[in-house]
Design goal:
alpha+beta, 1 helix, 2 strands, 26% helix
């Protein structure tokens, strides 16, 4: 068991935010955690830096995802062509 565990949690409320912006924010936080873990590899365990913990609240408009192995043929809806004025 790591006696240097960081048990603090930073709560972040992003409110209503578009999906790409919210995802980008989460990716940056995750990368910061990975950076600390990478630094810790070169340090003795008693000198390890704590990683931050986050609880993120956000809401975004509906998003439909297909997944990594999905194909357009898997969709059960028709593509809607935008109408021009």
């Amino acid at each position: 068991m790591n006696i240097n565990q960081n048990k603090k949690v930073t709560v972040i409320d992003l409110g209503l935010i578009d999906y790409p912006t919210g995802l980008d924010h989460q990716i940056k936080l995750f990368q910061s955690i990975l950076d600390v873990k990478a630094k810790n590899r070169d340090l003795p365990s008693e000198q390890h830096l704590p990683t931050n913990n986050y609880l993120i609240f956000c809401e975004h408009p509906h998003v439909f995802t297909l997944g990594k192995s999905g194909e357009e043929e898997n969709l059960l809806v028709r593509r809607r062509v935008a109408e021009h004025d």
